[in-house]
């Protein structure tokens, strides 16, 4: 199978598994990550086929997680690997290419999967994190909060003393996520291209969060 057909099959497969997902993690997230990863890979000189395939498949485990009603904390990266392996086998790709795609999928979260060791995996990692920053990051944050019944603004006294490891939706907010996680993302990028984009998106997101607080308080 040629690369163009393999990418089309991966896109169709991933899109089918994302149907019915809540907006914060629907297939539009995959499409944005795909475009970002493609841009980063092009500028960094990475293997575009590996990056494109990994980007399309990196979140398909969320479908399995949803079906199985997993009680364990978010393991979609592991489930994405599980679903990707037989799919890639059916495409007839060589072992080296399959291993490279799987490694990128397994390490796109930098948690149980370990850190990305290849340039292609680092391109995907950066692209996935960048989709949580900037104006899109703000939009995705509020989509997620709306899905869980949360509101626009929560002052820091309501969450500053809560354990940062507590991921309960009922105590989360854009302000809290920025404080404990999102403002640090620009320092976690691996590629020079990712770092440059992250700085711009970081500054944009910081400005929007500041403007939201001013408007909520009636300052502007």
Automatic annotation (TrEMBL):
InterPro entries: HD/PDEase_dom, HD_domain, HDIG_dom. Residues 26-133 form the HD domain. CDD domains: HDc. It comes from the Archaea. PANTHER family: HD_PDEASE DOMAIN-CONTAINING PROTEIN, SUPERFAMILY HYDROLASE, PUTATIVE (AFU_ORTHOLOGUE AFUA_1G03035)-RELATED. This is Metal-dependent phosphohydrolase. It comes from Methanooceanicella nereidis. The lineage of its organism: Archaea, Methanobacteriati, Methanobacteriota, Stenosarchaea group, Methanomicrobia.
